[in-house]
Amino acid sequence: MKSIFLALALIATGVHAAEESDDNPCDKVENEVQTLECSAFSRTTAEQLLKDNYQGLNERMQTAYSKNPAQLADITGKLKAAQQQWLKTRDADCAVEAFPATTGSKAFTIAQNDCVARMSDERSEFLESIGQE
C-alpha cells in the first residue's frame, strides 16, 4: 500500500513540479526523501499562491464596490466565509485521501501535501477567475 502512495506521490509531485519554472526541490526527485521535500515545497508554493489570489480577489472587490460600502461589506463577508469553509473542506478531504497511510509516516505526509497542493491550485484558479474584467 505504501508503494502505491509513493508512486502516486511521485507522479503528482512530478506534474506539479513541471508547472514550476524556477529551480526547486522537485527538479530531480529520485528517492523518498526528495519526494517528501518536493511535496512540502509544492504545498508551500500552492498555499502562497492561494493566499495571493484570495488577497487579489479582495482587492478587486474593493475596487469594484468602493462606492457602495454596504455591497463591499456583503461581498467581503461572503468571500471570507466561503474561504474559511473551503479550507475546512480541503483539509477534511485531504485527511480522507491520505487515510490509508499511517498518520505521521512519510507516505501520509506526502499524500497530505500533494492533496493540499492540488486542491489549493484548483481553488487559486477559481479565485483568480472571479471579478476579472
Describe the structure.
This protein has 133 residues and is mainly α. The chain has helices at 2-19, 32-65, 69-98, 106-129. The longest helix has 34 residues, at 32-65. Residues 1-11 have low confidence and may be disordered.
Question: What is the compact description of this entry?
Answer:
By secondary structure, the chain is mainly alpha-helical.
Structural descriptors:
133 residues; mainly alpha; Substrate Binding Domain Of Dnak, Chain:A, Domain 2; 4 helices; disordered N terminus; DUF1311 domain-containing protein; LprI-like_N; signal
Describe the protein's topology.
Layout: H1 2-19, H2 32-65, H3 69-98, H4 106-129
Unreliable spans are 1-11
Question: Would you state the CATH class?
Answer: Mainly Alpha
The main sheet comes to:
none
Order of helices and strands: HHHH
Query: What's the CATH topology name?
Result: Substrate Binding Domain Of Dnak, Chain:A, Domain 2
Strands, count: 0
Strand content: under 5%
Which CATH architecture is right? Up-down Bundle
- The chain-level mean pLDDT equals 85
